[in-house]
Amino acid sequence: MAVFQPTDASVDEFVAQQSPRRQEEARVLIDVMRRISGEEPVLWGPSIIGFGSMHYRYASGREGDMPLLAFSPRRARLTLYFDGFDRYAAQLARLGPHSTSVSCLYATSLAALDLEALTEMLGICHAEAMAASRQEGGAWRTR
Questions:
Q1: What is the pTM assigned to this prediction?
Q2: What is the DSSP string of the chain?
């Protein structure tokens, strides 16, 4: 299994390779995540745009690094990465057409989403990750 790591690849070049709609959506998400995190975007692996980083450690002992906020402008759907969805019920109710998995939020169109609700979710996710990272001495432990 490949290790999930930040790369030196150009985020701008990666975004330029996407469809015109995904390029525009990526620019909006980059702006939102940059404002929330205070970080510049970094390409993690071949297709994930991330902001900041934190170390995680699973109860099983597996550990690694991951971005604090991240998304991927995939062809079929945008994928935004979260820490689960239990704490976002109010925002998800307002968000618009989407689906979720354990830690991914999927949307076919950013324009169809309530950007204010999404921004609230990203802000909560970032704040929780920062607090957990400080509490664990720099390492975030998953549930």
A1: 0.89
A2: -----B-SS-HHHHHHTS-HHHHHHHHHHHHHHHHHH---EEEETTTEEEES-EEEE-TTS-EEEE-SEEEEE-SS-EEEE-S-SGGGHHHHHHH-S-EE-SSEEEES-GGGS-HHHHHHHHHHHHHHHHHHHHHTTSEEEP-
What does the pLDDT look like over 12-52, one tens digit per residue? 999 999 999 999 999 999 999 999 999 999 999 999 999 99
Q: Is residue 4 in some structural domain?
A: no
Per the structure, how many domains does the chain have? 1
Residue 112: give the domain boundaries. 11-141
Q: Is residue 3 part of a domain?
A: no
